[in-house]
Specification:
This protein has 2 domains: about 45 residues; about 35 residues. About 30% of the residues lie in helices and about 25% in strands. The protein has 3 helices and 5 strands, in the order αααβββββ. The strands form 2 sheets. A 3-stranded antiparallel β-sheet has the order 3-4-5, with no helix packed on it. Strands 1-2 form a two-stranded antiparallel ribbon.
Length: about 100
C-alpha cells in the first residue's frame, strides 16, 4: 500500500478518479480504494525510505536535483538525486 500511495500522489485528482472508477475493479476486484483525500491523510504518504539507510525522509520536490530524462513514450521517467540522502530516485510521470 505504501508504494501505491506514493505513486498515486503524483496523479492529478481527475486521473485518480478515472483510474479508481475504471481500472480499480479490474486490478482489485471486490476492493474499495481510498479517496484522493484519504490517501493524503495516510501517515505513510510522502515518506521516502531507501535501502541500507535507517532514515525516513519527508518527500519534498525541493530536495531533488534537476532531473535527467531516462525514457519516454506514453510516460516520462526522470532520474533525480535526493540531496539529503545522496541516493538516486526514479519517478514515472504519466502523460
Amino acid at each position: 500500500m505504501c508504494l501505491l500511495s506514493f505513486l498515486l500522489t503524483f496523479l492529478l485528482k481527475s486521473r485518480f478518479e478515472v483510474a479508481s472508477n475504471i481500472l480499480a475493479p479490474m486490478i482489485f476486484p471486490n476492493t474499495e480504494l481510498p479517496s484522493f483525500e484519504e490517501i493524503f491523510e495516510d501517515e505513510n504518504v510522502n515518506k521516502l525510505v531507501f535501502p541500507n539507510d535507517d532514515m525516513v525522509y519527508i518527500f519534498k520536490m525541493e530536495d531533488l536535483s534537476e532531473p535527467s530524462v531516462i525514457g519516454s513514450s506514453m510516460h516520462v521517467v526522470r532520474r533525480y538525486l535526493h540531496i539529503p540522502s545522496g541516493m538516486y530516485l526514479l519517478i514515472k510521470f504519466l502523460v
